Amino acid sequence: MSTSRRSKIPNPIDFKPIKDKLNLMAVFRSQSFDTKAYGNFIALAILLHRMCQAAGYKPGAIVSTANKVTFDGHKNDLYKHLRANIVGHITHQQALDI
Fold first, then answer.
1. What pTM value is reported for the model?
2. Does residue 57 fall inside a structural domain?
C-alpha cells in the first residue's frame, strides 16, 4: 500500500456511555510517542468535551493506544530511558523467535 493511500485510512474512535459519563477510546495505527502523542491526547480531550456538551454527558476516561510507537525527536535518550526501566524488555526479533 502506498504512503498516500495509508494516510487516508481513518483511526478507529469509539465512544462508550457508562451511566452519566462518556468514555473515549482511540486506536492509532502508528504514533510518534515523543513528538505527537501529547498533542493527539489533547485533541482527543477536546473532542470528548465537545461530544459530551452535545450529548449531555460528563467527560469520562480517555484510552489511547497505538499499534506501532516510534521515537522521532529525542530518539536515543527516550528509548534508552524506557528500555532501562521496562522489566522483561525483549527485542522484536526475540518476540518472533518465541
1. 0.63
2. yes
Considering only CA atoms, which of 48, 58, 47 is closest in space to residue 18? 58
* R_g of the chain computed on alpha carbons: 17
Domain count, the chain: 1
pLDDT tens digits along 12-43: 899 999 999 999 999 888 787 777 778 888 99
The parent domain of residue 59 ranges over 7-73
The answer as to whether 52 is a domain residue is yes
Question: Is pLDDT at 2 greater than 70 in this prediction?
Answer: no
The continuous run of DSSP H or E covering 5 comes out as helix 3-6
Helix (H) or strand (E) holding 87: none
Report the C-alpha gap between 68 and 84 in whole angstroms: 20
